[in-house]
Amino acid sequence: MEDNDEGAERPPPSSTGKKSVIKIPSFQGTSSLGAGEDGVGGTSTSTSASHPKAASFSQAFSFVKSSEFYSPPPPPPPPAASQAADCARGHSAAAQSEDVPVGGIPSSSNGSSSSSPANFVAGSRNAILVSHRQKGNPLLKHIRNVRWVFADVVCDYLLGQTSCALYISLRYHLLHPDYLYYRIRELQKNFKLRVVLCHIDVEDVAKPLLEVTRTALLHDCTLLCGWRYALLISSVQMIKIVINSLNKEKRSVYR
Predict the structure, then answer these.
(1) If you write DSSP's letter for every residue of 187-230 in order, what string do you get?
(2) What percent of the chain has pLDDT over 70?
(3) Where is the composition biased (Pro residues) (predicted)?
(4) What's the pLDDT tens digit per position in 93-116?
(5) In terms of pLDDT, which residue wins out, 22 or 155?
(6) How far apart are CA 145 and CA 192, in angstroms?
(7) How far is Cα 194 from Cα 68, in angstroms, rounded to an integer?
(8) Residue ranges of domains in the chain
């Protein structure tokens, strides 16, 4: 009896509890119609009959969007935020490029591209090219007899094709004793006239002034010292005026 019971066919399970199932077409169902081959779980024939052959993958699974399990993807972020950030960066860069210093002239693309005496721009020939390191230096407010403009130069003040000047204060020298040496070394052999402008802004000047003087003389530099900014920059303006007059005479002779 037990063997007979085991060999008897069991009735199929009741299908009273129906569940929502997404029928995904098999590869055979999408590639061939009416093949009659059983797919995974034996649902290939019914699936291929209910869903005809589609031309693409998206068309074959288009019915998934109508099911309850599908939720649309979130929309892409609007490009307005990125465009606004790019515009802000562009405006800030334009404002920096058109910066007009106190007592100077607007910096142009010609003046800012000169990084060596060989690239001394003809448009800024009569102006002192000031390095961007000197921004905020009170010394610039006292340059009134000649024009000056910010530019990318190795020295602090480019006076001509072979003339330049470096600026240092004794207070800064006490904090950074090797600063003047490294600045002079950056000039290499590109300038014949190298002036060191030393601002005396401390009471005890014996030791720091001796060190600055020794460094300047050992590297063939002309040292100019001054207590006041106006007195210190007057020598630089005079050098620039002389250079401009010499250049003017040379141009008149060649003409």
Answers:
(1) HTTS-SEEEEEEE--SS--HHHHHHHHHHHHHTT-EEEEESSHH
(2) 54
(3) 71-80
(4) 444 433 333 333 333 333 333 344
(5) 155
(6) 24
(7) 82
(8) 20-70, 108-254
Q: Which of 91-105, 182-196, 229-243 has the lowest mean pLDDT?
A: 91-105
pLDDT of residue 246: 84
- Contact between residue 117 and residue 107 where contact means Cβ atoms under 8 Å apart: no
Does domain 108-254 match CATH 3.90.550.10? no
Residue range 45-76, pLDDT digits in tens: 444 444 455 456 677 777 777 777 677 777 77
Q: Say which amino acid occupies 23.
A: K
Strands 193-199 and 163-169, how do they pair? Answer: parallel
pLDDT at 16: 52
User: Which DSSP string do the residues of the chain spell out, in sequence order?
Assistant: -HHHHHHSPPPPPP--S---------HHHHH-SS-----GGG-HHHHHHHS---SSHHHHTGGGGGSTT--PPPPPPPTHHHHHHHHHHHHHHHHHHT---TTS----HHHHT--SGGG--STTTTEEEEEGGGTT-GGGGG--SSEEEEE--SSSEE-SSSEEEEEEEHHHHHH-TTHHHHHHHHHTTS-SEEEEEEE--SS--HHHHHHHHHHHHHTT-EEEEESSHHHHHHHHHHHHHHHHHHHHHHHHHH-
Two structure tokens written together for 198? 């030393």
